[in-house]
């Protein structure tokens, strides 16, 4: 199975998360690889959750559960999601490609510079609930790069979150999931 799938397990305090990236051509788009995440508890205290994830290089982006996800009680049959996996991933892939193509068109600016594709950092930070320490790091980067785009901001936020120290890997994954959810909500709000 190692020739067909790449993945790993993280666990903490009775919860486990399995990430799987099948090595199928239809689940790749350039350097993007589409996979699935299953979250479960040892004592059956929480539902089984199936989520979709995109890996781009070393970074991983969760797709919001509202758009593509499944939550089942333990007595449910989760085989249905595996049967429709390719069709759901194709939907996820199309939405992801729109974000990858549209986010670089928007320039992040430090002030209220007029322009159709200018987005003030303060406005984006409010919408994404960016913490002050992260916001200061982003401001420094934007000051040194006049062509800082929404895509650059998205990637940097995920990098900073991934590199941060957490109590457990599960805590890191939960935080990444929340950030990705906010970013996808922001893209919907912008009409992307």
Task: Write a brief caption for the model.
This protein is 41% helix and 27% strand.
- Percentage of β-strand residues: 25-35%
Terminal-residue CA separation:
37 Å
The average pLDDT is: 83
Low-confidence stretches: none
> Over the alpha carbons, how many angstroms does the gyration radius reach?
18 Å
- Biggest sheet descriptor: 7 strands, antiparallel
This entry's quaternary arrangement is: single chain
Provide the structure class: alpha+beta
Number of helices: 6
* Helical residues, percent: 40-55%
Spell the H/E element sequence.
EEEEEEEHHEEHHHH
Number of strands: 9
Overall 3D form:
globular
In words, what does this structure look like?
The chain has 192 residues and is an alpha+beta fold. The protein has 6 helices and 9 strands; from the N terminus they run βββββββααββαααα. It has helices at 79-83, 85-102, 121-128, 132-144, 150-163, 169-189, and strands at residues 5-12, 15-22, 28-29, 32-41, 48-56, 59-62, 69-72, 107-109, 118-120. Strands 1, 2, 3, 4, 5, 6 and 7 form a 7-stranded antiparallel β-sheet that branches. The protein is globular and about 50 Å long. The termini are far apart. The model has no long low-confidence stretch (mean pLDDT 83).
How would the blueprint of this fold be written?
Elements: E1 5-12, E2 15-22, E3 28-29, E4 32-41, E5 48-56, E6 59-62, E7 69-72, H1 79-83, H2 85-102, E8 107-109, E9 118-120, H3 121-128, H4 132-144, H5 150-163, H6 169-189
Parallel strand pairs: 8-9
Antiparallel strand pairs: 1-2, 2-4, 3-4, 4-5, 5-6, 5-7
Helix pairs in contact: 5-6
């Amino acid at each position: 199975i190692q020739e067909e799938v790449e993945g790993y397990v993280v666990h903490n305090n009775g919860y486990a998360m399995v990430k799987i990236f099948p090595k199928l051509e239809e689940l790749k788009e350039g350097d993007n690889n589409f996979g699935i995440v299953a979250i479960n508890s040892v004592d059956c205290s929480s539902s089984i959750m199936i989520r979709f994830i995109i890996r781009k290089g070393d970074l991983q982006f969760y797709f919001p559960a509202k758009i593509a996800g499944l939550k089942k009680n333990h007595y449910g049959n989760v085989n249905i999601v595996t049967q429709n996996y390719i069709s759901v991933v194709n939907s996820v892939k199309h939405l992801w490609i729109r974000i990858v193509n549209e986010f670089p068109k928007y320039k992040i600016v430090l002030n209220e510079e007029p322009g159709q594709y200018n987005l003030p950092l303060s406005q984006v930070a409010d919408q994404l609930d960016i913490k002050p320490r992260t916001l200061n790091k982003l401001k420094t980067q934007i000051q040194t790069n006049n062509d800082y785009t929404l895509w650059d901001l998205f990637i940097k936020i995920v990098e900073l979150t991934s590199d941060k120290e957490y109590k457990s890997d599960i805590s890191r994954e939960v935080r990444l999931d929340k950030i990705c959810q906010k970013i996808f909500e922001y893209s919907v709000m912008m009409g992307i």
